[in-house]
Amino acid sequence: MLRVPTKLLLATGNPGKLRELGALLAEVGLELLSPRQVGLNEQVEETGQDYAENASLKARAFARARGVWALADDTGLEVEALSGAPGLRSSRLVGEDGGDAERRARLLELLAPHPPPWPARFRTCLALADPAGQVDLVHSICPGEIVAEARGTGGFGYDPIFQVMGTGKTLAELTLEEKNLVSHRAQAVRSLLPVLRRRLGLPAPDPG
Predict the structure, then answer these.
(1) Which residues are catalytic?
(2) What's the rounded Cα separation, in Å, for the pair 108 and 94?
(3) CB atoms near residue 203 (< 10 Å)
(4) Parent domain of 39
(5) CA-to-CA distance for 161 and 18, rounded, in angstroms?
(6) Which one has a higher pLDDT value, 12 or 204?
(7) How far apart (Å, rounded) are the C-alpha atoms in residues 149 and 78?
(8) CATH number at residue 52
(9) For 54, which of 48, 87, 164, 181 could close a Cys bridge (C-beta 3.0–4.6 Å)?
(10) Looking at residue 1, what is its pLDDT?
């Protein structure tokens, strides 16, 4: 009888992503590990040509490094007025060492010549890798628009200037529970859950 895995390594050092993924995956009953908990501090170079390649690179690297199942995400903000930029370079818009506030300020600088509204969307790809490096992928998007002034104190990254379509609120104005109902990452995790259960041999959720 095959042993059912009990641990899942979340292949990110981003505290915001760890917090969101932890809440979204709580129901599966796995022990969720951060790279720090297993003594990993390696940085995987994101050389892929799209989100799926980058997410796969990270998931495979972390899974093989510790011989466990690993989950990685790659997310980009795509703004129509900027022809889909910053996209794959969303986290590196002001260089490798730039902070969230600097990235938001730079994005608004780039948008200044373009009249609002500024339709945009977050695009996410999640990659689930087994210890041998086999990967399953899921994708999602969250439509909205960029606003000129930051609003809210929650979230991270571009959240304070990204207003979710149909809500009138930025991602940073939502509670974690509210964000995990509508965000790109939440939608991707919901798509991933049946794949995760099937691949790891986990029981189906209790219908009650």
Answers:
(1) 74
(2) 12
(3) 9
(4) 7-200
(5) 21
(6) 12
(7) 18
(8) 3.90.950.10
(9) 48
(10) 39
What's the chain's average pLDDT?
92
1 lies in some domain: no
Cα 72 to Cα 108: distance, rounded to the nearest angstrom: 28
Name 23's bridge partners. Answer: none
- As for how many domains the chain has, the answer is 1
How far is residue 171 from each of residues 24, 46, 62, 184, 204, measured CA to CA in Å?
16, 25, 29, 10, 31
Q: Is the overall model pTM greater than 0.70, yes or no?
A: yes
